[in-house]
Specification:
The protein has 267 residues and is α+β, with helices and mostly antiparallel strands. The chain has 8 helices and 15 strands. It is elongated.
């Protein structure tokens, strides 16, 4: 009997990335790694990770996305009472999604590397005046008791994850699937280069769902852009738009072509 295939996730066992792997790829064994299936943006707190900084030099390619509703639990060592909680352990990104509960408790926030790490730390060093903010899976894994459930500030709290592969030439998405293409580019240093470079997407009717800029190597004059558009490069309209973008750019790299999660269409 062969072992189950494995999928890597960012963080420690019990993190939201772990839950996302179990939900999206139930036949795979989740394995904690520095990079694998990573959270990239959240509907409350915004950007999670600078994926455009990581991917070009990582050798990884994007092969999928997954939108996961996020629910945080306030967990404690068994026997701790809510009124005794004075400190809450969590990663800053998670704490920022649960500000109202933290304020209501009047607790101080102690920072951790990720949500599951906060739960593990509390389990390893029991403290009757301390709680952790983490997913329910972390309470199960580390033997903690949940005092308050679903403490996120907004009901729509959702995190988008990207699925990555080390295969430099992954199989293309299924025929007929709605797709997303992610890429980075740097425009040539000429007047109105960005305006001209993006014009091809408008004239060809290609929807651009994301465009972010960031500095390259600390140089204020060398701006790279990360973008996501609907479609795949083989589509005639997107092919023409990318060709026009390439004419006004001195760098253009496709980071992945992958099926769009149904969440994008309200599914």
């Amino acid at each position: 009997m062969s072992a189950a295939p494995r999928i890597a996730f960012q963080g420690e066992p019990g993190a939201n990335s772990d839950e996302a792997c179990r939900a999206r790829f139930p036949a795979y064994e989740p394995v904690p790694r520095a990079l694998g299936m990573i959270p990239v943006e959240n509907s409350i707190a915004g950007r999670v990770a600078d994926v455009h900084h990581l991917l070009p030099s990582s050798g990884l390619r994007i092969i999928g996305e997954y939108f996961k509703p996020i629910h945080f639990q306030l967990m404690v060592n068994p026997g701790t009472r809510l009124e005794d909680v004075r400190t809450v352990i969590s990663m800053p990104f998670a704490a920022s999604q649960c500000r109202r509960t933290v304020r209501r408790l009047g607790a101080q926030v102690e920072l951790a590397s990720d949500t599951a790490a906060s739960a593990r730390a509390l389990a390893e060093r029991p403290d009757p005046n301390c709680a952790a903010i983490a997913p329910a899976l972390a309470a199960e894994l580390y033997g903690l008791e949940i005092l308050l459930r679903d403490i996120e500030d907004e009901d729509h709290n959702t995190t988008r994850f990207l699925v990555l592969t080390a295969d430099s030439n992954p199989p293309p998405p299924p025929e007929g699937a709605d797709c997303v293409t992610s890429f980075t580019f740097r425009v040539r240093n000429i007047p109105a280069a960005l305006y001209k470079a993006l014009g091809g997407f408008a004239t060809n009717g290609v929807n651009m769902s994301k465009l972010e800029s960031y500095m390259e190597n600390g140089a204020f004059t060398a701006t790279l852009f990360y973008a996501e558009v609907d479609g795949r490069p083989e589509d005639a309209a997107l092919g023409r738009a990318l060709e026009e973008l390439g004419y006004f750019s001195d760098h253009l790299e496709v980071l992945g072509v992958y099926p769009a999660d149904p969440f994008r269409r309200g599914g």
